[in-house]
Every structure is written in structure tokens, then in C-alpha cells.
Specification:
By secondary structure, the chain is mainly beta. Helix content is 10%, strand content 35%. The structure holds copper (II) ion. The site of copper (II) ion has 5 residues, from loops. Its cofactor is Cu cation.
């Protein structure tokens, strides 16, 4: 080989290697528009993205960046959240309404810059304003970086199952009414799989989602729980599944005949089509832990059909999964959840913080706010509420991120406590009345950059309404190092923490009448929402915000804001200057840099 050709060859090799490591940039347009949909024998108009329910799938490789231009052609303001995407240093594009931005108003658009980093597997996107996420959501598929592989053999095919809630009425109008009167929120009329209720619900048999498989092949099944207020059991008749990923991280393989999946959570499953040629139901049904007198639950069985390809005579009726647990089977659920472990291998190491600098205990309660003369429609004529450490969160009218970034006062207070103000026997059957009424406010937790944080979430039995709470954190994933029933014991329980291979997730189920402990390193500066992913609990105040301060260098600081953020339009009763349009102020500040 001559010198020239050698050099050329080297140059080509360099370009090839560079390409392999390069992150791609993708562009999507999301058009939000009302469209008519008919389910359960009834037609309604609802807001969806690009005319589809569920919405479009975003496909990336690990480390890519996606620009999504959201055009709002609907009737009300909306934001979108990229659930589980850490968005390093970029809270501007995280999405929760009044936390990191104000709504994208009708007739306007906003471009999100969605920055992927360590995530690999399945995540999803959804609206983060009122209950619009019931119809505005879709999957995010994250393949390994080119040139790398998954820790399991390449499957022969893939399928996405998005589990959702269906409401016959206009859900935002129904919820608004309940929030005004203080009543509990509406139950869904059925669950759906990929937008369809399935064979067991009225007027639904013709549109049941069908998935055709070839005998002998192995498939990757990406399951997303997009339901509004429900943990779900999911199973496919006769077929074992192997859980290989949760929330965009890999886990040690778990072989089982069902999964339990909490709202917000995603799971990657391997399924081998190794049963007799035929048809098999995939079923999603609620796992209900709230047996309170004023809440029923949605007992529908949403179905899809797994159907083998080929020429055969199928039985008239698909088989139903015999092992899907009953609606209230806590044992089955906790046994499954307790099996989740990180891979913790050389290729996929864990990095559990060991030198904790901030330790917190946060109680999770259902509450009420008193109404004069029992004039509300909630518990005993009061207004239903919920809280973290007895603080019921109130959304501000200017987003917390803007207030923090621009030092605006009066929007939030930096005083969310490390410990609840009072300790009581959290999980006792008969709790004193003084635990039932929370204080209201916009209290946020401030953290220094790189702090190593441990938080124990303690469920309570306040008002005799103990139940599971799927707590979700924005901007981070975290390790679940321990959990148990009853009250957390800070002397004995830490001795059993799993610091070797705890699962790495972005949401965690706090068990009914129990506790969970998580750890993370605060290395993503920004303003990050923390909330229960049951939408009704979120509305009632079961949230807080964590502000992670800058680390002192540009690389450890929040990125400058984009040139345009949707302006905040406070209600007229607030004394804001008439011409307040923050988009201009932010732009000016950005231009000064
Ligand atoms: Cu909750």
C-alpha cells in the first residue's frame, strides 16, 4: 500500500469511528388538534398529536438530541414532558406546567430540545397540563448507540403496548368541576391498549389491537403505563415474559407470567412465541390499593390479541391469561416489584452514592381542607387534598424555573423541610385528627450541586386511606435501595439496604402502609418536579420541586434559556404590569451573554 492510499484508508477509518460515536439530531413536528374518537359506543372530541391516539413514536439512539416543534391548534394551553429523559442542564425543555414553563397557548408553537444521555430502552412523552395527558402521549424508543448492543440477543421483532385510560366524557371539564367542589376525581370508563378497549367492552370488538407473531421468534415488547390513576397488571395468556429493562435502564432478567406496572413506568419484556398456533389475549387490568369508601375503581379488562401467523384453525375465542392477579392482590404485586435489580455488570455498572450529605424523610398523605358548613363535596363536606410532609403544593402562576433563574420573589419559598413537622405512628389505624389538614404553599427543596441525597418516602394511613403512590422525579434517575412495610426504622432498616445492584428508575412505588428509600447524586442543575404520578393526587398537591444549584462552572450550570419561552399570563386579579411578556425579557438576557 502506498503512503497516499494508507493515509486515505486511515482518514476513512477515522471518519467511520467518528460517525459511530456521533450523536444524531432529529426533528419532529407535533400538531395538537381536536379530533373525534368513538369508543364504548360514544363519540367525543379530544386533543391529540398529529391526529393519532396514542401519538407518534419518537425513535432515537442513546445520546441523540431531538427537536420537537409543538404547534398548538387546540383550544387551551398545553405543555409536553419527556418522561424519564434527564435533559442534562436543560430544565427549559422539561415541560411541567408552571414548574419549568408556562403553557403553549392556542395558535402558538414552542420547540423543545430533548437531550438524551444515559437512557436506553423505552421512555415516553405526555402532556403535563391538567388531564390532557390522557389523550396526548406516545412512546420514545431508545436504541443502543450504533456499534454497541443490548445485553440480550437481538430480538426478531418489536411491539409497543401503551396502556391508557378512557373517559367517555370531556375529562378536563369533569376534573375542573370536581376540583371546584372538592369531590374525588372521576374514574375512567375503561382501560385501553394502544387506544382500544378490546373484546370485553361494548362496541369495541371490531377494533381490538392485534399483534401477529411468527412461531419460534423472540420479540421485544415495550410496555408503557400511560393510565391516569392506576397501577396495572399486564399478562399474555400462556406466554412467560422476561423483564429486561425498566424506565430506560437494564435489569437482571426476571421470568414471570405477569408484570405490575405503575403509571409513568415503562418495561421492556422479551417474549418467545413458543405456544400452539392460535390466539391469546394480552390483558391490562387495574391493581387497586385504595379501598376507601368514596373511591371505586375501574374493573374493566382491556385486551389486545396476540395472533400466530400461518394456516391453522384457531379456537373461536382467544385464551385468557389464567395467572393475571386479582385487582387487589398486594402479595403478587410486591413480590414482583421486589425482584427488580440492576444489571450491575462491568458494561452496565451501578454508581450508588455512599457518602450521603442530605438525608430526608418525606411523608405521603391523603388529606382534606376544611370548608365552612361542610359546603364541599369531598370527605365529610370538606375539600379533598393530598400532601408531602403535610405540605400541599400550590402551582404558582409564573413558572418556578423562571422565578429561580431571574431571582423573582414571591413565586416560591425555598423551605421544603428535610423532615415532617410532626412524627406520629404513620401507619397506625386510628390517627389523630390533627394529621388530616395540610398547610398549603409552593415550597421547594434547595440542593447544592453534587450532593449525595437519600430520601425515604413514608406512606401514611391518614384519613384511613393508605394506598400505593408511584412517585416520579424529573431530571434524574435514582436507585431504590430499600423498601418495607410499616414505619421506616432509621436504625435497623438501613442495615438491609441494597447498595450492590439496586434498580435504577425514574419512578418508584411507595407501598401502601410502607416506605421506600432512594439515593441519587444531585449532578443535574435545574428545577425538577417531584410528584405522585396518580393524576388526581398531583392535582391535590402531592408534589414538590427540587432546585439543584449550579456547580460553579459553565459545564455544571443550567444552560442559558432558549430564545423563546411561552409567556406566563397570570390571572387578571394578580398585580402584574399590563405589558409583562417574559419572552422578551428572557431573549434580552440571552442576547446579553
Ligand atoms: Cu399518590
Amino acid at each position: 500500500m502506498g503512503l497516499l492510499s494508507k493515509l486515505l484508508w486511515l482518514a476513512c477509518l477515522n471518519i467511520f469511528l467518528f460517525r459511530m460515536a456521533e450523536s444524531a439530531v432529529h426533528y419532529y413536528d407535533f400538531v395538537l388538534r381536536e379530533k373525534n374518537f368513538t369508543r364504548l359506543c360514544s363519540t367525543k372530541s379530544m386533543l391529540v398529536v398529529n391526529d393519532s391516539f396514542p401519538g407518534p413514536v419518537i425513535r432515537v439512539h442513546k445520546g441523540d438530541t431531538v427537536f420537537v416543534n409543538v404547534h398548538n391548534e387546540g383550544y387551551y394551553g398545553v405543555t409536553i414532558h419527556w418522561h424519564g429523559v434527564k435533559q442534562p442542564r436543560n430544565p427549559w425543555s422539561d415541560g411541567p406546567e408552571y414548574i419549568t414553563q408556562c403553557p403553549i397557548e392556542p395558535g402558538t408553537n414552542f420547540t423543545y430540545e430533548v437531550i438524551f444521555s444515559t437512557e436506553e430502552g423505552t421512555l415516553w412523552w405526555h402532556a403535563h397540563s391538567n388531564w390532557t395527558r390522557s389523550s396526548v402521549h406516545g412512546a420514545i424508543v431508545i436504541y443502543p448507540k450504533e456499534g454497541t448492543t443490548t445485553p440480550y440477543p437481538k430480538p426478531d421483532g418489536e411491539e409497543i403496548f401503551i396502556l391508557g385510560s378512557w373517559y367517555v366524557g370531556n375529562i378536563n371539564a369533569l376534573v375542573l368541576e370536581d376540583l371546584k367542589t372538592g369531590a374525588s376525581a372521576p374514574e375512567s370508563d375503561s382501560y385501553v391498549i394502544n387506544g382500544q378497549p378490546g373484546d370485553f367492552l361494548p362496541c369495541s370488538q371490531d377494533s381490538t389491537h392485534r399483534w401477529v407473531v411468527d412461531f419460534g421468534k423472540t420479540y421485544l415488547v415495550r410496555v408503557i403505563n400511560a393510565a391516569m390513576n392506576a397501577d396495572l397488571f399486564f399478562a399474555i395468556a400462556k406466554h412467560n415474559i422476561t423483564v429486561v429493562g425498566v424506565d430506560g435502564s437494564y435489569v437482571k432478567p426476571i421470568v414471570n407470567d405477569f408484570i405490575v406496572i405503575s403509571p409513568g413506568q415503562t418495561m421492556n419484556l422479551l417474549l418467545t412465541a413458543n405456544q400452539s398456533l392460535g390466539q391469546y389475549y394480552a390483558v391490562a387490568r387495574q391493581y387497586d390499593t385504595d379501598q376507601s369508601f368514596f373511591n371505586g375503581f375501574d374493573d374493566t379488562n382491556a385486551t389486545a390479541i396476540l395472533m400466530y401467523s400461518g394456516n391453522y384453525t384457531a379456537p373461536d375465542v382467544p385464551l385468557f391469561p389464567s395467572n393475571i392477579p386479582a385487582y387487589t392482590d398486594n402479595n403478587a404485586a410486591y413480590k414482583f416489584i421486589g425482584r427488580l435489580r440492576s444489571l450491575a455488570s462491568k458494561e452496565y455498572p451501578v454508581n450508588v452514592p455512599l457518602n450521603i450529605t442530605t438525608r430526608m424523610l418525606i411523608t405521603i398523605s391523603m388529606n382534606y381542607l376544611p370548608c365552612p358548613n361542610a359546603s364541599c363535596a369531598g370527605i365529610d363536606g370538606n375539600m379533598i387534598a393530598s400532601s408531602l410532609s403535610n405540605m400541599s403544593f400550590v402551582n404558582p402562576t409564573t413558572d418556578v424555573l423562571l422565578a429561580y433563574y431571574r431571582n423573582l420573589s414571591g413565586i416560591y419559598t425555598p423551605d421544603f423541610p428535610n423532615w415532617p413537622e410532626s412524627f406520629f405512628n404513620f401507619t397506625a389505624d386510628d390517627l389523630p385528627l390533627n394529621t388530616t389538614i395540610p398547610t398549603q404553599g409552593t415550597r421547594v427543596k434547595m440542593l447544592d450541586y453534587n450532593e449525595e441525597v437519600e430520601i425515604t418516602f413514608q406512606g401514611t394511613a391518614v384519613l384511613k386511606i393508605p394506598q400505593n403512590h408511584p412517585m416520579h422525579m424529573h431530571g434524574y434517575s435514582f436507585y431504590v435501595v430499600g423498601s418495607g412495610f410499616g414505619n421506616f426504622n432509621n436504625e435497623t432498616d438501613p442495615k438491609n439496604f441494597n447498595l450492590v445492584d439496586p434498580p435504577e428508575v425514574n419512578s418508584v412505588e411507595v407501598p401502601k402502609d410502607g416506605w421506600v428509600t432512594i439515593r441519587f447524586k444531585a449532578n443535574n442543575p435545574g428545577v425538577w418536579f417531584w410528584h405522585c404520578h396518580f393524576e388526581r393526587h398531583l392535582d391535590w398537591g402531592m408534589n414538590t420541586v427540587m432546585i439543584v444549584k449550579n456547580g460553579g462552572t459553565p459545564e455544571t450550570s443550567i444552560r442559558p434559556p432558549p430564545t423563546y419561552m411561552p409567556p406566563c399570563r397570570p390571572p387578571p386579579s394578580l398585580a402584574w404590569p399590563k405589558d409583562f411578556d417574559d419572552s422578551h425579557e428572557v431573549r434580552n438576557e440571552y442576547e446579553r451573554k
